[in-house]
Specification:
The radius of gyration is 24 Å and the shape is elongated. A 7-stranded antiparallel sheet has the order 1-7-6-5-4-3-2, covered by helices on one side. Helices cover about 30% and strands about 35% of the residues. It is α+β, with helices and mostly antiparallel strands.
Length: about 190
């Protein structure tokens, strides 16, 4: 009769060990997505001229205070100076024929930008009538990859920051591209 209580006790102990160990086996963050699209009243070639230079992002993106790049070919890196610090991107692909550029975060700084990693693409398509459709999309991970991140480094903070960065950038790109087209269409002064 004593075997039965010890067997029951052993089962309870085993169950308790399994339940206590469950949080340790929880998985980390899931990838998030951010995507913004804008139609620009400028031909795709003119818009691509601005986007195709990997290191020139500071010339049209209002959130980028300065940028420097090691080149314009895959493998190049660029350092972006943002309001709260620097991050580094690595160029993965540039396809002028498809007007597409792909890059990834090489060196994070969660104080400057609340993500631990991202891959992003910028694509310029012909929207007809001398206009362009620009799509900026990313797959990203939050700044704190633990199971219980603080609010400022969670999934929502990361996707909000990335979407905001894209939206501000596309507005800046639209302003720059449209002003260049308007400036080139102005009649020469006498």
């Amino acid at each position: 009769m004593t075997a039965r209580p010890s067997r029951r006790l052993a089962l309870w102990c085993a169950l308790a060990c399994v339940l206590v160990g469950l949080p340790a086996h929880a998985h980390g963050p899931t990838p998030q997505k951010a995507e913004e699209t804008m139609v620009i009243d400028a031909p795709p070639e003119a818009v691509w001229k601005l986007l195709g230079d990997f290191g020139a992002i500071a010339s049209w993106h209002p959130d980028v205070k300065a940028a420097s790049a090691t080149g314009r070919e895959p493998g190049a890196e660029r350092v972006l100076v943002l309001e709260k610090g620097e991050i580094t991107d690595g160029l993965d692909e540039i396809d002028p024929a498809a007007r597409r550029i792909a890059y990834r975060l090489s060196k994070e700084n969660v104080e400057a930008f609340p993500v631990s990693f991202y891959t992003a693409t910028l694509t310029v398509d012909d929207a007809g009538g001398g206009r362009s459709k620009v799509e900026w999309a990313a797959r990203l991970y939050r700044g704190d990859t633990s199971n219980f991140p603080p609010d400022e480094l969670n999934d929502e903070a990361a996707t909000t920051a990335m979407s905001s960065f894209f939206a501000h950038g596309l507005k800046g790109l639209k302003t720059k591209a449209e002003s260049r087209v308007a400036g080139s269409a102005a009649p020469a002064g006498r």
